[in-house]
Design brief:
The protein starts with 11 loop residues before the first strand and ends in a 9-residue tail after the last helix. The strands form three sheets. The protein has an eight-stranded mixed beta sheet with strand order 1-2-4-3-5-6-11-12, with helices on both faces. It has a two-stranded antiparallel sheet with strand order 7-8. It is globular and about 55 Å long. Helix 2 (88-107) crosses helix 3 (119-129) and helix 5 runs antiparallel to helix 9 (226-238). The longest helix has 20 residues, at 88-107. The chain has a domain at 12-154 and 239-322: Rossmann fold, CATH 3.40.50.1820. The protein is an alpha/beta fold. The protein contains 14 helices and twelve strands.
């Protein structure tokens, strides 16, 4: 049964649900037939999906809808104890495969464009490299790939500071507030600085509403299963298995060189969570053509900042329009 989605700016309907995950299809803004290849937005599992549809003027999903694209969104949901078995393979391959099938079935399309944000981009690349069917192209937005030099996050993944195994034994599903507090500890002076700068622009209504929306999202963390947390921290960050070609899924190594889909690699030059050095190597590791674009923004601002419409959004829309295989989008 189709149910309306919540916590989104633009109306969307649920077309698939499996475990904690659901797939939502946005209602078109135009009367014309949408583009033949839908876009499936794949957020990270660390924060809520609505960062991609935050509010009017801060909605990548809304911009793509305005361009006449058929837009779907993966909402990973909130894992419970019943979902404690979900690991990296489950998210990047099994659940994402189901999401792609759901979008294809609802749209009638043979394939979809994947647009993955942060770890969602990593999942999309893993799925592409593993041969998950129905992937036409991939947009990797602030996506960690080569984590030999992970920047500030190296503190959170340091074996000397974080007893990952003990944490995972204590919490089969690690609470979201605990994860958020850990990220905040990376920059203890950053929070008061952020609020001071916001106070300086508080009379500007648009800036005030932007700040409120972003803070509400940041303070709405999502729990993670211990299994996927272990795979991400130990496998991707500590051992850098994906970049080395040593990450194993279903018993087989994931070789990014086997990925053949065209990729748009979107990098934020001031990103402290996914420094550019972690994303740029994709061009050398991926088997298909890679187009790299960098923007003067941070990890969140690149998607919802005041310059996002003319920078990131315009670039993504133009690239997706150019990769529609059967017909042009309505002007």
């Amino acid at each position: 049964m189709i149910a309306p989605a919540r916590s989104l700016t633009h109306p969307a309907d649920e077309v698939l649900r499996h475990g904690p995950m659901r797939v939502l299809r946005y209602r078109p803004l135009r009367a014309e037939t949408p583009a033949s290849r839908p876009v499936l937005l794949v957020p990270s599992i660390i924060n809520r999906a609505y960062i991609l549809d935050l509010r009017e003027g801060q909605s990548l999903a809304g911009h793509l809808l305005e361009q006449g694209l058929d837009v779907f969104l993966v909402d990973w949901g909130t894992p419970s104890a019943a979902d404690a078995h979900l690991d990296l393979e489950a998210y990047a391959v099994r659940l994402l495969r189901r999401a792609i099938r759901g979008a294809r079935a609802a749209s009638g399309a043979e394939a979809v464009h994947l647009l993955g944000y942060c770890l969602g981009g990593t999942f999309a690349l893993i799925a592409g490299a593993c041969g998950v069917p129905g992937i036409d192209t991939i947009c990797a937005l602030t996506t960690p790939v080569d984590l030999s030099e992970p920047g500030p996050l190296s503190v959170l993944t340091d074996r000397r500071l974080v007893d990952l195994e003990r944490l995972c034994r204590a919490y089969p599903v690690v609470p979201g507030p605990a994860l958020w507090a850990t990220f905040q500890a990376l920059d203890p002076v950053g929070i008061p600085r952020k609020y001071r700068r916001a106070g300086e622009r508080w009379r500007d209504r648009e800036q005030r509403e932007r700040f409120r929306a972003q803070e509400a999202w940041l303070n709405d963390p999502v729990p993670m299963t211990a299994r996927v947390l272990r795979d991400v921290v130990d496998g991707l960050y500590r051992k850098n298995l994906l970049a080395k070609g040593e990450l194993r899924v279903a018993g087989r190594p994931v070789a990014l060189a086997r990925g053949t889909q065209p990729v748009l690699n979107l990098i934020a030059s001031s990103d402290s969570l996914v420094p550019p050095a972690c994303a740029r190597p994709l061009a050398d590791l991926w088997g298909g053509p890679v187009t790299t674009r960098e923007f003067a923004a941070g990890h969140i601002g690149v998607t919802v900042g005041s310059r996002a419409p003319r920078d990131l959004w315009a670039t993504v829309a133009q690239w997706l329009r150019a990769h529609q295989p059967t017909k042009e989008l309505p002007s």
